Amino acid sequence: MTQHYLDIETTGLDPEIDQIITIQYQELDRNTGEAVGELTILKAWESSEKEILQKFILDTNILDPYPFSFIPLGFNLSFEHNFLKIRTKKNGLPSTDILNNPFLDLKVVGVIMNKGKFKGAGLDKLTGKESNGSKIPEWYKNKEFDQIIQYIEMETREFIKFNSWLYKKLPNLLAEFKEVNGF
Q1: Mean pLDDT confidence for 14-24
Q2: Which residues constitute the domain of residue 68?
């Protein structure tokens, strides 16, 4: 069973017309939530959207019939899900459905930590992440690929910091909940 941080960057918000320009993933320790190994960033500007999708499918075994071969962890994985599912189909590749197998989406935790409010519950509002990525399409259009890479690396660090903090804190909350409720 392997858990991986998963994120993508795109040219916009509509998977029917916008393209995936990066797919990034990194293995995470399932006991600590910390990064294991290097961050992989697949870049469409070095090949094509189709080629990075193919490489992602091959490298991660995401289509393996065993549902625990690749467990994505992310923040608002429905965005990645919609893009991956539609863009694989548009590129003539097998449909990639990341929400039909085990996954962990920390967006839910962010909303709860934000007193149930979705507004203000983005990773950029909860952590040291400096922005929400709205400049990615402009950077891509202007071929400012170094800016995109810097953003991805910063976002990954902040996600993993948040994730590993939750791995440390949440077991204590469970113990406290059980104690308070007499379990």
Answers
A1: 98
A2: 3-180
Half-sphere exposure of 92 (CA within 13 A, CB side): 2
How many separate domains does the chain show? 1
Q: pLDDT (tens digit, 9 = 90+) per residue, 32-75?
A: 999 998 999 999 999 999 999 999 999 999 999 999 999 999 99
Buried b (16+ CB within 10 A) or exposed e, 33-59: bebeeebbbbbbeeeebbebbbebbee
Q: How many residues does the chain have?
A: 183
pTM of this prediction exceeds 0.90: yes
C-beta separation of 162 from 126 below 8 A: yes
Tokens of 37: 């190994």
49-60 vs 77-90: helix axis angle to the nearest 10?
A: 110
Cβ atoms 4, 39 nearer than 8 A: no
Q: Of the candidates 61, 23, 34, 6, which has an alpha carbon nearest to the alpha carbon of residue 148?
A: 23
Residues 6+ apart with CB under 8 A from 33: 160, 163, 164, 165, 166, 167
Both tokens of residue 33? Answer: 């939530």
Residue 118 maps to which CATH number?
3.30.420.10
Q: Locate tokens 């797919």: which residue?
A: 23
Q: Mean pLDDT throughout 111-120?
A: 96
